[in-house]
Structure formats: C-alpha cells, structure tokens
Design goal:
Mean pLDDT: 78
Largest sheet: none
Low-confidence stretches: 1-5
Strand content: under 5%
Number of strands: 0
Helix content: 55-70%
Radius of gyration: 18 Å
Length: about 140
C-alpha cells in the first residue's frame, strides 16, 4: 500500500505525471515542427531545411534543459530547495503548460499535486528528445535527405 492508504495510488500518480509530461512534450514537438517548417520555407530549405531546423532546435533545447537541471552546487538538491535556496520546491507553471493541460487526454484526468509531477526543466529535456526523434523520423521514416 502507498502512503495515502490506497493500493496503487503511487502507480496512478506516476502514470498521471508521465501522461502530463508526454502531452507537454508532444505539444512542444508539434509547435517546433510548425516553426521549423516556416523557417525552412522562409529560407528556401524545403523539407531538408525543416529536418535540419528540428535537429538544431532539439539540441539547443536539450542543452538548455541540462543547464536548468544541473544543480548549482554539490550540496544542493533540486528536490529539496527552491530557486532561492528556500525549503519550498520550485512548482511554478509556465503559460504553455496551462495550454497543454487543456488538451486531451490530460484535461479529462485530475493531475497529482505539482510536487509529484516532473519539473519544467525535466519536461523540456523530454521534449528535446521528442524533437530529435521527430527529426530522425523525418530522415529515416520519410526519406528526407
């Protein structure tokens, strides 16, 4: 049994947190794909340009997420302290998260409290993996060379 007294509550919380992160990552990937297509059309790159833009944006997102996830000192635990070193964890939302939480299937479920969900930098890291995966699928799956 979990700490809440209900069997499976930990698994359900974990599944809902993963669902929230995957929905966020898919939305970021879609927005990035649209942006890459517009950038590619504007620069005359075509489908190859979109694939390259997706690749570059994915790596930049990953670098930014890693910097945000990196602890400021060996003694700091991001789960135990907030941005100013206070004992309150960082749980603020970005505006894009509020938009993605209005998308199905996340809008149909009650999400766990913020301290049981992935933080924004972790969601950005997962999003960067999805964006790089989309770039890979453009090259391998659709044959964009």
């Amino acid at each position: 049994m979990s700490s809440s007294g209900r069997p499976g509550a930990g698994l359900q919380t974990y599944a809902l947190a993963v669902l929230d992160a995957v929905t966020f990552s898919l939305a970021v990937t879609g927005v990035t794909l649209v942006a890459a297509v517009f950038l590619s059309i504007g620069s005359g790159g075509g489908a190859v340009g979109a694939k390259v833009f997706m690749f570059v944006i994915g790596w930049l997102m990953m670098a930014y997420a890693v910097v945000r996830l990196w602890p400021s000192s060996p003694d700091s635990d991001p789960e135990q302290s907030g941005p100013s070193g206070s004992p309150i964890p960082e749980t603020h939302e970005i505006r894009f998260q509020r938009v993605t939480r209005a998308l199905p299937p996340v809008r149909w479920v009650t999400l766990p409290p913020p301290e049981h969900r992935l933080r924004v930098p972790a969601q950005l890291f997962l999003s960067s993996v999805f964006v790089l995966g989309a770039s890979f699928l453009l090259e391998v799956g659709l044959g964009v060379q």
